Amino acid sequence: MVHPQTPGGCVQTSVTTIERFILDQEDRYPEATGELSNLLYDIALAAKIIAAAIRRAGLVNILGAQGAENVQGEQQQKLDFLANETIKNSLKHTGRVCVMGSEEDEDIIPVPPESSVGKYAVLFDPLDGSSNIDVNSAVGTIFSIYRRISLEGRGTVADVLQPGCLQVAAGYIMYGSSTMLVYTTGQGVHGFTLDPTIGEFLLSHERIITPRVGQYYSVNESNFGRWDKAVQTAVRGLKGDVPDAVKPKNSRYIGSLVADFHRNLIAGGVFLYPADSKNTNGKLRLLYEASPMAFIAEQAQGSATDGLNRILDIVPTHLHQRTPLVIGSREDVGFVADMIRRVTTSSATSGAGSQPAS
Ligand code: AFP
After folding, report:
1. Which of 125, 141, 153, 247 has the fewest Cβ atoms within 10 Å of its own Cβ atom?
2. With a 6 A CB cut-off, is 293 part of the ligand 1 pocket?
3. Which residues in 285-313 are b (16+ Cβ under 10 Å) and which e?
4. Who's near 244: CB < 8 A, 6+ residues apart?
5. Which atom of ligand 1 is least distant from the CA of 80?
6. 257 CA to middle of ligand 1, Å?
7. Distance CA 289, CA 302 (A)
8. What does the DSSP 8-state code read for residue 132?
9. Ligand 1 site, residue 129, Cβ cutoff 6 A
10. Model confidence over 309-350: pLDDT tens digits?
11. Which atom of ligand 1 is nearest to the CA of 260?
């Protein structure tokens, strides 16, 4: 990582800020208007405000539930609310956005009538993994940007219901031991670490490539008994049941998608949130979680499926749609798909169905 103040006390005089990096990338496209670059800075600014609030959370009385429930019927945490408002306020008056969608809001979020509109639709999960907030574990923000498809006026729901393969940018901010912003505009994946002493995101991970085979599998195994036989067999395989097909992996699971995904992106691994008998379409949201992470995974040469099908090809039908997710190192995601396909086919031919194994 590049840090302006090295441990020896020597000041590093050549650093790449996120602003300079985005501008350098934009220079490669003479037709670029700069609108997307500015939108990415707007998000980076919102991230700094949220990071500062999270750092102070233990000191000021903003930890804990706010009282209201969000559209998923979950208790909204105070920091969820703050993060949601911060992002909306950072984007709605910029003239770069035509409509927004947030995991915390039931409907699309229009740009206020007094503000001009731009050509982008932005979707975000303002504070993912928020049940970890009270125990001081890593949480994150996830964002996804599409070019509008409506021709004029305020954006519409059609602008946000686009398949992930049409994203123009996606990224996440991880509020962990340090704050990191990782994004892609379809030109590779780049990571920046917030230097709190100067308040800037500095380039720390240029062109991230995820290992083809990972060392970790990440899944909430307390759901094991609720998975169908195909998923159970795949997870057993990752643990070492079929060493000829896949090297046994170590388990790591935080329960905060950004943190679990980020670790596997850097170190290699596969994250799974399959469907189960309670969450029959999986738990994670296609638009706010799966699609942006899938875009990043593919740009880092990893992959992402719903178990069988590519996430980026799914055409959403509603804002808060859920999907099963298997994401990470390419060969590991492929192994899970192979196992699911094999067990499902053999259960269908034997007439046994793919019910949970005993
Ligand atoms: P919260 O935001 O409610 O904590 O949910 C986090 C999340 O959407 C995602 O970040 C995790 O990967 C997943 O849920 C964890 O779910 P389980 O607690 O069921 O394992």
Report:
1. 153
2. no
3. bbbbbbbbbbbbbbbbebbbbbbeebbbe
4. none
5. 2
6. 7
7. 16
8. G
9. yes
10. 999 999 999 999 999 999 999 999 999 999 999 999 988 777
11. 12
Strand partners, 175: 139, 179
In the block, tokens 């000829």 appear at 244
CA angle 178, 202, 177 (to 5 degrees): 5
pLDDT of residue 136 exceeding 90, the answer is: no
CB 133 within 8 A of CB 281: no
Q: What is the DSSP letter of 134?
A: G
Tell me the per-residue pLDDT of 258-296, one tens digit each, with 9 for 90 and over: 999 999 999 999 999 999 999 999 999 999 999 999 999
Q: Which atom of ligand 1 is nearest to the CA of 273?
A: 12
pLDDT averaged over every residue in the chain: 91
The answer, yes or no, to whether any atom of ligand 1 lies below 6 A from the CB of 225, is no
pTM for the model stands at 0.91
Judge whether residue 358 has pLDDT over 60.
Answer: no
Over residues 297-315, mean pLDDT: 98
Cα–Cα distances (Å) from 66 to 75, 90, 102, 250, in that order, read 8, 22, 18, 37
Q: What is the pLDDT of residue 294?
A: 98
